[in-house]
Amino acid sequence: MEFGCTSEDEAFRAEVRGWLAEHVGGAGDRRTWERVLGRGGWIGIGWGVEGYGNRAVGLGRQVVWAEEYARARAPARSGHIGEKLLAPTLIAHGSEEQRNRFLPPIASGDELWCQGYSEPGAGSDLAGIRTQAVREADGGYRISGQKIWTSLAHEADWCFVLARTEAGSRRHRGLSFLLVPMDQPGRIEVRPIRQMTGTSEFNEVFFDGAHARAEHLVGGEGNGWQVAMSLLGFERGVSTLAQQVGFAQELAQVVEAAVASGAADDPVVRDLLVRQWAELRTMRWNALRTLGSSADLGAPSVAKLMWGRWHQRLGELAMRVRGAGAAVGPADWSAEAPYELDALQHLFLFSRADTIYGGSDEIQRTIIAERVLGLPREAKG
Predict the structure, then answer these.
(1) Among the CATH numbers 1.10.260.40, 3.40.30.10, 3.90.226.10, 2.40.110.10, which is that of 113-222?
(2) Has domain 238-372 been given CATH number 3.90.25.10?
(3) Quick count: other Cβ atoms within 10 Å of Cβ 173?
(4) Each residue of 299-354: pLDDT tens digit?
(5) What is the H or E stretch that residue 134 is in?
(6) 235, 250, 340, 362: which one is catalytic?
(7) Residue predicted with more confidence, 3 or 28
(8) Phi and psi angles of residue 2, each rounded to the nearest 5 degrees, phi first
(9) Residue 50 bears catalytic tag
(10) Where do the structural domains in the chain lie, given as residue ranges?
């Protein structure tokens, strides 16, 4: 039995494993898979509200679902931004009309979302955004500006956009949270950003007079910063435990590669492998300790610091145990198709971003210093 799980939770675990075993193999493309999950009632199980086409379960069963999903190596989600970020935000800050309009198609897997926060000059320092939203005669908004690092924008039907609705406002003031349809040819352009791995999960998004309806303003005009910060609070939690299951699978691959290459005979390499295992267990217990608690304001930042650098070290170790063969890449690095990298090469290259995206290490340390330890605030330029 897993930590903190009752016998009823374990029965639920058996149900989850059986459903995943039956459906994962025939998942199809990512949008089709979201609809399969929706029909199974697996989207939105942590919302804590019923009546939107989902089943509501407690925290323990949310953990079970997340961990078993990772263990089953089920497909990467394209609906998690709507499910894990927007939906809880609408439950907390949206109107009843907004919840009735947007939660059911998220729960069914029929509408996919992306997040319009970061900009070229406002990434970790989100308060510096410059995207403008001007009120129109019909009460809606005309949006102009650029967002960057927008995950899955090329697949999304909608984007929740943080924009400046008060002319001349600065920093946290004058921002609003808008729900924007992506199907606006000539008004919204999505440009994929090609990464070192040859894939393009991230995008630039250009808004050139894109329209958002008046009823799609969440939380009231000028209250965007409060809504946006509330959303970021939902970004980490149960998903951290599922992430750690994926990390454990990657660590097992590295151990297997070390044995196959003979690198495991080196006592230094063995020490590094044991260190990775021990630190992963520590991260798990820390995640369980803080799960569902809002008392520890620094917990998300501490967790991000821990796993970001841990994952990078794992990628570096993967290359070390592979030896010289790890440096052999595709014949054509300029090819349009994704590069033919093996799993450990992909791990190494992708993990270089772990200490940057989702809030850089420097930002996390500043949060811990100022908001948790009460140290003097850093001087702003």
Answers:
(1) 2.40.110.10
(2) no
(3) 13
(4) 778 888 888 999 999 999 999 999 888 888 777 666 665 667 888 998 999 899 88
(5) strand 132-135
(6) 235
(7) 28
(8) -75, 160
(9) no
(10) 7-107, 113-222, 238-372
